[in-house]
Fold this sequence. Notes:
The protein is α+β, with helices and mostly antiparallel strands.
Amino acid sequence: MPGMPDTDAALEGHLDSTHAARLESYMAFLRIPSISAMPEHADDCRRAAQWLADALAEAGLEHVEVAETGGHPVVYADWLHAPDAPTVLVYGHYDVQPVDPLELWTSPPFEPVVVGDRMLARGSADDKGQIHAHLMAAGALLATRDRLPINVKYLFEGEEESSSVNLAAWLAAERDRLVADVAIISDTGFFEGNVPAITLSLRGIMYAQIDVVGTDVDLHSGGYGGVVQNPANALATIIASLKGPDGRVRIPGFYDDVEPLSDADREAIAALPFDEAAYLQQHGLPALVGEVGYSTLERRGTRPTLDVNGLWGGFQGDGSKTIIPAHAHAKVSCRLVAAQDPDRIFEAFKAYIEEIAPPGVTTTVRLLGGGLPSVTPMDHPATQAAARALEATFGQAPVYIREGGSIPVCASFSSVLGLPVVLLGFVQPDSHAHAPNEWMDLGNYETSIRTIARAWDELVDLPR
Ligand code: BES
Ligand code: MN
Ligand code: MN
């Protein structure tokens, strides 16, 4: 809003006086090991959902509910007392990734600790820290103004890290109570060097498993080597055929639905402050590789990929064992861009593997999960309101970036609910999400609370 002061003194006062309690609450949330992929943590996911519901109620939100989806529950809450103002649907996820390899953590993943200016724990960044900031922003606004400037509906799910398998159906069934003007998701990050950013697109994903089976049990490689097909060799042949030396995926039709980059897109990407040498050094890498003809940032944000995520079969112990393994397996995923469709890509992937699979073994391919890519227009007024909020609170106008990760529900927000999605995330790019020693910068966390509060003020005039 024009003329709005840069800080809200009452809000600042409240946030200052509640600082210690806020960190305690953040840590309590992080202590719940809500790993969605592991059935033995199903009760923990439920506990995290209930913890959130209690925290939402404590912040002053209404219609708080832990709702069943068939999988881990979703948590809903709202505040709807601004009849002349727009409605925002806030989405985030309370589930986290598994923590292995545990031995690489410097402190236990579910015993959060503050080290310097970082909160260290699984979920501190992806995504518990960011949904906690939303709770704190709502609580602070309600405590100091007794109202919110806009209507807000909160939807937090517990299966994002497992492809959100039950969420699309729940959204469709609950469409009526999810009516809003825009969805805001805080589950992305800042640009390299901790530059405030708004993410304009996310890639989709197709995740599959390849199983190659030869015999019921392993065979003596002396007695059978040179006579039978080796499933591990056969799998290696298949994987080696999936991509060419030019970094391009060889599956026929793979690129059919990829939209070419416009000159304007290429220019915008080239203008980002990306220091490739620093990036290499930060990751301890000798070189970056990928599809020829595209820059690093173009490849990361706008081009589809194919990667092996896991590969196993045969003898894995110390020393040697002379066998022809009975079977071999690979997990393979493709990151997809608009307008690629995960189901169509899976069909093309499967058909190609069936065609190239070596003889003498049985090769099967199955789909494990998928999600559509998503895009938000930069000039949408909600995107611009978020940009003003970032600039007012972080002191720097955001850059607009395209990210390589996936949030499958984004596409459902537009297809099922007809909502534009603004990706307003606050995590530093090297925060070790999904890896050991995940961390959240506490400066970003604190400022993000102010950004969210400010964004609600900036959205008051959103055209509807
Ligand atoms: N928060 C991430 C998505 C993300 C990652 C956005 C990097 C921007 C940059 C999300 O929690 C995530 O990890 N998604 C999974 C989805 C998958 C399980 C279907 C992903 O991208 O691997
Ligand atoms: Mn996430
Ligand atoms: Mn994640």
